[in-house]
Design goal:
- The chain has helices at residues 17-22, 24-31, and strands at residues 10-16, 35-42, 47-53, 67-74, 77-82.
- The chain is α+β, with helices and mostly antiparallel strands.
- A 5-stranded mixed sheet has the order 2-3-1-4-5.
- β2 and β3 form a beta hairpin.
- It is globular, with a radius of gyration of 13 Å.
Amino acid sequence: MKNFVEKNRVGRFRISNELLRTSPYKVKLIMSKVVVVRCDSLFYMNALEYVAYSPLFDIIEEGYVPQDYEFSIDGKKVITSKI
């Protein structure tokens, strides 16, 4: 059986510098659900943009642009939604 990396469950998401400073626990929960393969500092948005694999993301065909996602936290549960 293929894992989420082999299935190409890749997505893109952002974490604001404010969230990183004020809610590191939430950031830790999000980051525990992904395998980051790229991170860019978006200085004009005061955020970090990540490209990562996750079982929470949809499968995309190789060569396609990753879908943008948003994370929300419900207690200890991480929820994703497409943007």
